[in-house]
Each structure stands twice: as C-alpha cells, then as structure tokens.
Amino acid sequence: MPDFSYEAEVTRVAKRDARAELLARRRALSAPARAAAAGRVQAELVALVRRLRPRRVTAYVPVGSEPGGPDLPAVLRAALPTDAELLLPVLLADLDLDWAAYTGPEGLIAAGRGMREPDGPRLGVGAVADADLVVVPALAVDRHGRRLGRGGGSYDRALARVPAATLTVVPLHDGELVEALPAEPHDRPVRAVLTPTDGMRTLDAGPGSARGVAPHTSAGRTRGE
C-alpha cells in the first residue's frame, strides 16, 4: 500500500528535486567529456569482467548522458568468456524488467523511454537472480549503497530478486557518489560504484553501518582490497 504520510511525501519531493539537479548536470556535460568518461568506465568494467570471469552478466544500453556509452553491451560481451552470456533488460508494461540475451547491435530494437532492447526470446523477470554480476543504472549512489534512479522503480524490483552476495555495480559520472540520498523502504542498495576518475569502489550496503567506501583494485590502478 502506498505511503501517504508527510514524511513519505517529503522524501518523494527530495528525490524529485535531486533527479532534476542530477539530470541537468549530466545534460551540461560536453560531448568530449562524455566520450572520455565512457572510455574510462568501459575500461574499468572490462577489467572487472576479466577478473571475475562471470558466466552471466546483466547490463543495459546507456542512453543520452548515461555513463558507459551506447556501445557498452558490445564491449562487455567481447570481454566475457565465450560460454558466458550477457542479458539486457526488456521493459514490461507494468515497468518491471524481463531479460533477453544480447547477440549484437543488430539484435537491438527501439523501445519506450528512449531505450534499446534485445529482440530475442525473453527469459523471465527472474533471470537476473542467476547473474554473477549485475550492472545497474542510476543518477547517483550514496556511501551506504542507496541509489537514485529515474523514478519508475524497475530496478528496485529487479534488485529485490538478486541474492545479497551478488556483485551489483553502478557506473557513475564523477561527483555522483554522494554522502547521502533520500530513500524509501522499497529502495534496494547496491554493493559498488564505478566512476571515471576513481574507478571501482565497494560500498557498505548493510543497514546501520557507516563504513562508507572501501578501496578496490580496478583497471590500471591498485587501491588495495
């Protein structure tokens, strides 16, 4: 049942205002800055995939100013072991996410909200639960793993199906890892973020802890585990 309390409304307004500010900041990025950030994000994710050698990865096709660039699925697929699979989301009418295998750029079709989706067989909303690595979009993430999405709740539903031990990673632009974000009970935390300048950092997504961001080894840079 929706929460219509004063506190819940304050949180929703705070989220709305934060989204507007973050989207405006992303739109203000120049094309060269976006391209440079995409290259560094891709390099970090490729290094992570080659280190983990996952058998199933879920990701997405970045649109507009989202970090990673529109060719991110092709780059990730090329880095995976030959017997591994990359799944991309298919947005359902109720805004939940189904999943289908990425087979190449020619297998993507235009979908709602500017997204591109694979046109192959759908594997069901539960397919994300079997992923070894889940790459998640967001506008910002705070130091406890709380993410701010675009407001549809699609990835909160998907993340609710992901085991707690699975690595969930959000690519961000510099400055989008923040101290704190407004959160609601249905919001699902993520375990790591990846930014162009600082690479990958693991987060404390556990309730009530203040451990914050821990250093991590990433492409070309060593921070210690």
UniProtKB/TrEMBL annotation:
Transmembrane portions of the chain: none
Substrates-to-products reaction catalysed: (6S)-5-formyl-5,6,7,8-tetrahydrofolate + ATP = (6R)-5,10-methenyltetrahydrofolate + ADP + phosphate
Binding locations of substrate: 61, 66
Keywords: ATP-binding, Ligase, Magnesium, Metal-binding, Nucleotide-binding
Record-linked Gene3D superfamilies: NagB/RpiA/CoA transferase-like
InterPro entries according to UniProt: FTHF_cligase (IPR002698), FTHF_cligase-like_sf (IPR024185), NagB/RpiA_transferase-like (IPR037171)
Binding site for ATP: 15-19, 147-155
GO biological processes: folic acid-containing compound biosynthetic process; tetrahydrofolate interconversion
SUPFAM superfamilies hit by this protein: NagB/RpiA/CoA transferase-like
GO molecular function: 5-formyltetrahydrofolate cyclo-ligase activity; ATP binding; metal ion binding
Keyword Phosphoprotein: no
Nucleotide-binding recorded as keyword: yes
Enzyme Commission number(s): 6.3.3.2
Organism domain of life: Bacteria
Region spans: Disordered: 201-225
Needed co-factor(s): Mg(2+)
Protein family membership: Belongs to the 5-formyltetrahydrofolate cyclo-ligase family.
Protein name (Swiss-Prot/TrEMBL): 5-formyltetrahydrofolate cyclo-ligase
Organism of origin: Micromonospora orduensis
